[in-house]
Amino acid sequence: KLCGYLNKLGIKGPIKTWKSRWFFYDENKCNLLYYRTAQDINPLGSIDLSSASFDCKVENGEGVFEIRTPSRTFTLKAISKQAMMYWLQQLQMRRWEFCNTQGRFPVGSSQLVNEPLTGRTSRYRVDVDNEDFLPPVKTPTEAVGLKAASLPAPQTSTALQNISLKHPWTEIQNTVYNICSSKQLWGNNGNVFSFSEFQEHPENPDEEQEAEEGTPEDGRMDSRLNWVRRARRMNSGFPNLPEELSRERNQMDKVSVLQQQILTLTEEVKSQKELVKLLHKALEAAQQEKRVSSMYLAATQDKDRLELVRHKVRQIADLTSRLEALEREKKELEQTLTLRDSHIQELKEHVQLLMEKNHAKQEVIMALTEQMARELSDPLQEANTITTETLYKQQEEIVHLKDDIDAYKTQNQFLNSEIHQVTRLWTRVAENEKALLMKCACLQARNCQMESKYLTVLRKLQEAVPGLPSSHAELVRNLIQEALEWDVKEEAEEALFFELTSALCPCSEYDEYGFMTVPDYEVEDWKLLAKIQALEIKSNNLRSQEVVEKPLRDRWNSVGELSPSAELKALIRSGIPVEHRQRVWRWMVSRHCRRLPDHYQRLLHQSRSTEHPACRQIELDLPRTLTNNKHFTSPTSQLIPKLRRVLVAFSWHNPAIGYCQGLNRLAAVALLVLEDEESAFWCLVHIVENLMPADYYSDTLITSQV
């Protein structure tokens, strides 16, 4: 078991205090439980290690480390640097073992997306890597384990300093349990000086049953009860030793043991007295409330009860006025305190100024004294003294620097191991998520195929409706109507899935450039055919994602800087993914078309000052450009003005052609891909002047006819 005493930093407003806590690792839930002492039965809290990270900083001090969870950061302190490194290594190892035994990292292979997820997780085994960033730390038996539980808990300056005020009910339960267990250990005769070995289980089964009823329902408390009793026997004031050792003890050993017992019991009595005071206050408040309720219930007539209520109202009004007076007095005292604080601050500043002046005078006196001593002493002896002092200071500084270097090396080694392990855990989770997304995509593709087949059957039945009986024809029409309304019903359910798989399977009514993926049929009988086509396109997109697009994207992701080569040419002809298309098009245009600085802006300025003859034809062709693209169907679209400026600029750039029908489609596609209108202008120039034959775009269209 991983357990031991650590100091936990408690923060209550501006107050920060270290409190000793007994930490115990629960391997079933990967939680680090902490108690006030090793003998407590109920934990004060827990730390979830499954999603936590660990850190240690030299600046925080020796033995201090942090456990960062998504909701909170816990600052702990071990008794030594060795104990701190042991805890960090053990927590890392336990976190890794828990994550692997839970089977949360299935193989992310694309070949297994059609297999059940449980089969893949059961076959997966994690191979622990052999990279040892930090050598294993020897177990500090005096700080962790059962031996540490047998030692007395670290003492604090006050009795209440180590008590958790956030968990009073848990403290009371643990105190009652410890008192009951102490009575069991005393026995029936109450002999304080009995050194005989106690029984492992209490004699009274009712008390044992009551102790077990107060335990948490987490399945681990049966074994923990025995373990706690064993630790309590080892930690009790009565030495639980073999009979041979007890006979060998002399009188001084017994006296020292009894003195230690007296100190322990005294501290325990102090803490119990504080708890009793708190309980007395709560009891008095409850009794006062009970008396008032009894008087109210004892009144036989409504008049008496009304008088009691009025009396209480008068008391409440009196208390309210007192409270207001106290509030006013509090404000006055706060103002007085503020004035006094400011006066004290001024006095402190004045004292600080006087101290600085005094310090400066002392430094001047010391400097003059040293100068006089140097003048009176032997120059050689003076040089030797200065050299010796300087050498001693340098040696001390070197020792401190070596210690700092060792500490930073240890910190660096641990942080490297932590980063390495967290990175591996994150990689496994990412692979798992990707595998699940691909499996969902494949299942959705199968679902689309089934829907497509069902709709095809409905389509056949729709064609045969005139020959069917009226009842059957009505049933077919109802089924077709329900099928056409599926999109509306499933839109909310599939919104989350499409959000998660949008990067893997981008399939919707429009593609990534805004073109309609399915024709919009206006005839009622063709709407079912349009839905069948949409499902087939969707299924093909989902299935081609893993087989075709994923390997092609992997090849493009490995391409660095673009340069002419046979491999790049073959890769371009295999297809350019959407995320790389803009970069490749810009590179190709820049290689074959020499861009003139500010040329496009000058052409726009010229078009604003003088109207080109082709402007009328351009305005006529703008509404007819890419009518199946949502970016050009609306007159208020942002791409319409950009397309107008690109076509007018090209008309001024190439007067021989001016404007020809067909240029609007080329410029529109260039705008969709490149997004920048100047880049789209130079792309249009490159296509017309370099790629296509001469006179292809002209008034006569002779070359295009050929």
Automatic annotation (TrEMBL):
Residues 255-364 form a coiled coil. Residues 575-706 form the Rab-GAP TBC domain. SMART domains: PH, TBC. InterPro entries: PH-like_dom_sf (IPR011993), PH_domain (IPR001849), Rab-GAP-TBC_dom (IPR000195), Rab-GAP_TBC_sf (IPR035969), Rab_GAP_TBC_domain (IPR050302). CDD domains: PH_TBC1D2A. Keywords: Coiled coil. It comes from Brachypteracias leptosomus (short-legged ground-roller). Residues 1-96 form the PH domain. One of its GO terms (molecular function) is small GTPase binding. Residues 195-223 are annotated as: Disordered. This is TBD2A protein. The gene is Tbc1d2_0. PROSITE patterns: PH_DOMAIN (PS50003), TBC_RABGAP (PS50086).
